[in-house]
Amino acid sequence: MKKLISVFTALTTILWLMGAYLVLPVKAVTFTDGALARETDEFDVYIIKLVGAEKFKRLILNPDVFNMYGHLKWSNVQVVADGTLADYTTSELVREINDTKVYKLYPDGDTGTKKWVDTLDCFTTQGYNWNSVYIINSFDRDSYTTA
Q1: Collapsing DSSP states into helix, strand and coil, what is residue 59?
Q2: 72: CB partners within 8 A, 6+ apart
Q3: Distances (CA, A) of 33 to 15, 100, 117
Q4: Could you give the CA distance from residue 63 to residue 75 in angstroms, rounded to a whole number?
Q5: In 10 A of CB 119, how many CB atoms?
Q6: 3-state secondary structure of 112
Q7: Rounded CA gap, 126 and 147, in Å?
Q8: Mean residue pLDDT across the chain
Q9: Are 86 and 99 in contact (CB under 8 A)?
Q10: Helices (H), 19-75
Q11: pTM (2 decimals)?
Q12: What is the distance between the alpha carbons of residues 37 and 85, in angstroms, rounded to a whole number?
């Protein structure tokens, strides 16, 4: 019996060290609309947007932008396993709440640029999705320089 326990312990230890634990079922993470998330090995925080079956994520540019939104709390950021957010389409389209202009964002670290999508034809030609447009405040919009 001691030999059987030793063999079992040795095999389970070897499998664990080899990464066999990765094939075990893992509880799926379910986000609600407006949830905040970042992956374990990343600093970037994303805000989740759900429209029907479509799932989007948008990078929050930097801590100043995050803090400018009074309803966002650092304690609400869910830290999830790497790869969890891969099923979410990255949205780089925004519109300031009091403006009709849609901008495409080009983040670069804690800074970035924005470019106005100036016509409906341009929007549709680029294959953009209206559901992916995030509504933001002016501080967030103005944190990007105009390209």
Answers
A1: strand
A2: 36, 47, 60, 66
A3: 38, 22, 25
A4: 13
A5: 9
A6: strand
A7: 17
A8: 88
A9: no
A10: 63-68
A11: 0.79
A12: 8
Walk across the sheet containing 102-108 and list its strands.
Answer: 134-136, 93-96, 102-108, 111-117, 145-146
Render pLDDT for 77-101 as a digit per residue (tens, 0 to 9).
999 999 999 999 999 999 999 999 9
Alpha carbon distance 40, 50 (integer Å) = 22
Measure the CA–CA gap between 132 and 83, rounded to whole angstroms: 20
Per-residue model confidence as pLDDT tens digits over 31-49? 999 999 999 999 999 999 9
For tokens 């891969």, the residue is: 86
Q: How far apart are CA 59 and CA 132, in angstroms?
A: 13
Report whether pLDDT(50) > 50: yes
Express the helix, strand and coil content of the chain in percent, nearest 5 each.
Answer: 35, 30, 35
- With residue 39 as reference, give the H or E element that holds it: strand 36-39
